[in-house]
Specification:
There is one protein chain. The chain is mostly beta strands. Helix content is 0%, strand content 48%. It is built from no helices and eleven strands. 32% of the residues are buried.
Length: 124
Amino acid sequence: QVQLVESGGGLVQPGGSLRLSCAASGFTLDKYAIGWVRQARGQGREGVSCISSSDLNTYYADSVKGRFTISRDKAKNTVYLLMTNLKLEDTAVYYCATELSSRCPPNFLGYDYWGQGTQVTVSS
């Protein structure tokens, strides 16, 4: 079965950094696109980032460009999201998700499988 397990969330100070991990099983990352989606309290889901498997192109929401970096470790079948210069508005539950396609979905939201999410709280 396709399974995604996130880790690395927690409490961080504004301006700090965190690296989220998403361990995938049931498929290999060299075949399918995978990305990160977040949902703040009382708000809808926002596509944050995605990496395609076909050409390894990466995509970012305007709100995180220059601060977040998505990467892939093929050997470990794990995707990472390095978050730097964190802001209060980055507080959300972060989900990793995969599209069973080599291309990222429109708006980084139409994924086929989702993890359970990990809480990121940015607070002073």
